[in-house]
Amino acid sequence: MNRQKVALVILLVIFAISLGYCLLRRPQQRTLDKLKFAPGVKADSARIPARSQDEKRLRLDLLDRELPRFSGFHRNIFRPLFSEGMSIRRVVARPVLPAPLPAPLPQPVVKSPAQIAMEDVGRFTFLGYLQKGNRRTVFLSRDNEIILVRKGDKIAGKYEVAAISEEVLTINLLQGGEQIVIPLQQNRALGR
Asked: For residue 183, what are the domain limits?
């Protein structure tokens, strides 16, 4: 026999044993020969205690009497549980020293147009270039978008490509006329 058949036989034996146990331990309904009270018979009024006339009226005199004061157990529930080893120490207040004056705020750094251009162009990644005849095309990517750049094209509407070689990309700022030389390294950001 293989293992599956052996496991099936064992489970069937356990099921048969549990089924037999359930049948033997099932609660049995019992019957009585004679009921204590016969169904449909009127209850015996002699067994019910009769109410007196005093029980039917509202007794307000019970509310007017004065109740005795409770003179029972006295305990301070806020007292510590273990007071033998505890002692109260006095805490001496130290004088508060005045806070030091805050340092003067640093002056904002004014960036040159070339620095701003390098940060903006630094978001582009150089993927490679294609040379066809004397024209070179550079492949740049930014935000999962591939951009093709040739000499004379504009990048991001702010920069114009002045020259492209195997090692560097030269761009001119449209505002200010400065020229920036960016080294080209495969799969790296231009600003590095």
From this structure: 124-189
